[in-house]
Amino acid sequence: MRDLGPLFVALSDPVPGIRETAAVALGILRDSRACTTLATALNDPEARVRAAAVEALGTIARAESREEVERTLADLDAGVRTKAALALAELGDLRSIPALDARTRDPEAPVRQAVAVALGRIGPEAAFAALERLLRDPVDRVRREAVLSIGRSANPDHLVPVRRALHDPAPRVRVAAAVVLGAHRDRGSVPLLLDLLSTPETWEKPALLVALGRIGDRSAVPALVSYAEHPAHWIRVCAVHALGEVGVPESRSVALEHLRDSYWSVRGAAAAALGSVGTPDDLTPLLEAFRDEHPWPRRGATYALGRLGLSEAAPRLRDGLKDPAPEVRLAAVWALGNLADDGARDDLVRMLYQTRPTREEEPAGAPAPDGRVTSDAESRLFDAVVQALGRLSRGLPDPLIQRSLVDARERLSEEELDRLARLPVPEVEVDRPAPTLRALFDIALPSSADDEDGG
After folding, report:
1. 4: closest CA among 30, 23, 26, 27?
2. Which CATH number goes with the domain that contains 85?
3. Does a structural domain hold residue 189?
4. Domain end: 63, 91, 119, which one?
5. What whole-number distance in Å separates Cα of residue 392 and Cα of residue 344?
């Protein structure tokens, strides 16, 4: 057990920066023994110390801290009030809704924005009236968060004000509304989305196209086909992706045509779309995509071949396990697992021993030195290999696979096994939580799991 005494002492240091650092450190440690001391620090004369203390209480997330954090919503400093609202979001207690509701009229926009986030995290159904009020806030950032928080509600009647938000004067609010309506597959919003799509504004068109694809209403197909020929490649890629989700005959012809698009992102979307709308006759053009100089079309073709179940593509998919791009290797692992390809067994076992499992605190994608966001494929490889090997041995258990999976599990701590699995795109569902890494091993090693339970 860690000795927190030095940090408790540091919270009384005469230098504000040291007190602030101590509060931050206690939050990082997530030790509930610090809650009483951190609650005392909420009365510190320095706002930055109070902010660090209330944030730490939110990170530790002990229910007994709720009342102290709620009182901090009345702090004189707006930054502290903002941190308090976000801390209540972490605590997730429905009893905090009245206190947060009272701050929907806070004079500072960042506080109201944080309140919108918190209400959505805690209980958007119970807090609907407050969130609807925030949709009339004069600041667009606040309205955007209110839309996204209402989107967490499972009540379809709550989508009515979100539809109205498609006419908000701020593009960022309209985009948020489209995202929410698409996530809910709200067919009632299709005419509104199509109407907005016809306006000259291009900034929001990708969100509208993606939403129409998620909803999957065939009335949107003519517009999607038209936008697949748009001069802007970043609009074409969304239209092609959406057509793949709608899955009508026109989708296949558009996808085949755009395998030859001048932009790699569109070629990648077209290849991936064929996984949903393609046929076995598309084997040749998909294999040709493996010669593309950019990894994204190779990735899309790999997923498509796995989704279509084209086992004759397995030798080429095995080559994908050695592709220099991690995105392609990840797709190949998934596709070969989906095909239950015995020929990939040795390569997948080798990858399991050579791939380092990702820790929960590691980011899925990190900023590169030039500001770009790097791929998160490497962080998903270990989990994907575990899943693929489990699918290979689903019929008759294979001793080599079983041994490799047992060895891999023994390398992991209990904490690592209980983190959420990071899986390839076809396994990710927005409205369903990912399984834990432990669950993946239990599925792949059912006999071992039964033995442990019985022991």
Report:
1. 26
2. 1.25.10.10
3. no
4. 91
5. 9
pLDDT digits over 159-179, tens only? 999 999 999 999 999 999 999
Q: How many Å apart are CA 240 and CA 269, to the nearest integer?
A: 6
Both tokens assigned to 265: 């992102």
Instruction: Tell me if 58 sits within 8 A of 88, measured CB to CB.
Output: yes
Range of the domain at 410: 292-357+375-455
Q: Is 429 helix (H, G, I), strand (E, B) or coil?
A: strand
238 occurs within a structural domain: no
Tokens of 66: 């709720």
* Amino acid sitting at position 201: E
Last residue of a domain, one of 35, 70, 91: 91
Question: If you write DSSP's letter for every residue of 232-254 in order, what string do you get?
Answer: SHHHHHHHHHHHHHH--HHHHHH
In the predicted model, what is the mean pLDDT of residues 376-388?
94
Rounded to a whole number of angstroms, the distance between the first and last alpha carbons of the chain is 29
Q: How many CB atoms lie within 10 A of CB 130?
A: 21
For 162-189, the three-class secondary structure string (H helix, E strand, C coil) is: HHHHHHCCCHHHHHHHHHHHHHCCCHHH
Q: Which residues contact 423 (CB under 8 A, 6 or more apart)?
A: 334, 380, 383, 384, 387, 434
Q: Which residues contact 36 (CB under 8 A, 6 or more apart)?
A: none
CA–CA dist 55, 333 (Å, integer): 40
pLDDT tens string 322-363: 999 999 999 999 999 999 999 999 999 999 999 988 875 555
Domain count, the chain: 2
Task: State phi, psi for 429 to the nearest 5 degrees.
Answer: -125, 130
Q: What is the CATH number of the domain that holds 304?
A: 1.25.40
Of the pLDDT bands very low, low, confident and very high (cuts 50, 70, 90), residue 265 is very high
Give the CA diameter of the chain: 75
Q: Is residue 287 part of a domain?
A: no
Identify whether the C-beta of residue 437 lies closer than 8 Å to the C-beta of residue 412: yes
The pLDDT tens digits for 5-51 are 999 999 999 999 999 999 999 999 999 999 999 999 999 999 999 99
The answer to whether residue 198 is domain-embedded is no
